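Box S2. Input/output pair 1.
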Amino acid sequence: MELGHEKRVQADLKRLINCQQVDVNQLMPLKYQWAWEHYINGCANNWLPTEVPMGKDIELWKSTDLTDAERHVIMRTLGFFCTAESIVANNITLAIYKFVTNAEARQYLLRQAFEEAVHTHTFLYICESLNLD
């Protein structure tokens, strides 16, 4: 193909998964409005863990108000979810993304992967705030 002679793919030809004749970079025209709406809603719901004050949590963690069993549950839960969120983010980007050939659905998957990265960051932020290994 010569540069400038490529034809736009019509929206009705855009398939969600494993489409051979689609340009994954051609966002418009949208075919799956729901995917674009999920992307827009995700962008509107943006937050970072550093925006959450940890002062009371740190105070409680340093106090003697928690039992050893409660501390154990907290540490296990943090460890589990930090790993789980990382696995979810990797699955989105490494296992699922390559099969999705619709541009607006890809936009949403990338946003979802970012949100999973924020979740992982959250657990790291909690561990750092509580001075955990």
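Box S3. Input/output pair 2.
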Amino acid sequence: MNSNSKYDILNDAASAIVKCNKAEAVAAMHRGLDAGIDPIELFMNGFGRGLHEVGEAFGKGRIFLPELTLAADAMKAISSMVDMIAQVPRFPSLPLETIIIATVEGDIHDIGKCLVVSVMRSEGLHVIDLGCDVPNDVIIRKALEHDASIIATSALLTTTILQQEKLEIALRERGLKGRFRTMVGGAPVTRRWAESIGADAYAANGQDAAQCALRLLTERMEKNG
């Protein structure tokens, strides 16, 4: 019998993602909500912890793409539930500025991006998710179409993080670097990498990404008066 203690529910949530079990993940989510656990805490400290373990296992070659895909499916189900629950912005004074987010071209993994999107939306941020394997030209075009304030990109593979650098180059060449603030993240991405390519911010996880976005938007508001 499953325990309804907060500690056990968070552990069960993490375990469900590690086991790539969508049904167990959804059940853990319902148990957590019934027990009065804040959905964002449940998402970050339970499911997010499991997601971190999956990412580390994939990076070390202990699991492979089929398992990663199943874990991503489970995480998407949880992300959808969190998106439905977290409808009230925590920062209503912020203007409704748009964040464009995408997994870079050549990378079909969105397991981490889904977490980032859900946490950002829970903070009241307006996020447009372009999905996976998105060319830089499309990212820039969509950012222009939606008059975005921030462009965030995720890369899970060491071979695809170069697309983040190419995006920075493309923005500078088109004279758009000052128009959009850029954020980068993903398993192989580091703060040093972000600084070396000229990105405006590096986010290590979903909560970090939301806080970085809020900081960038606040700075933009103050600059514009």
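Caption for Box S3: The chain has two domains: 6-85, 98-224. The mean pLDDT is 89.
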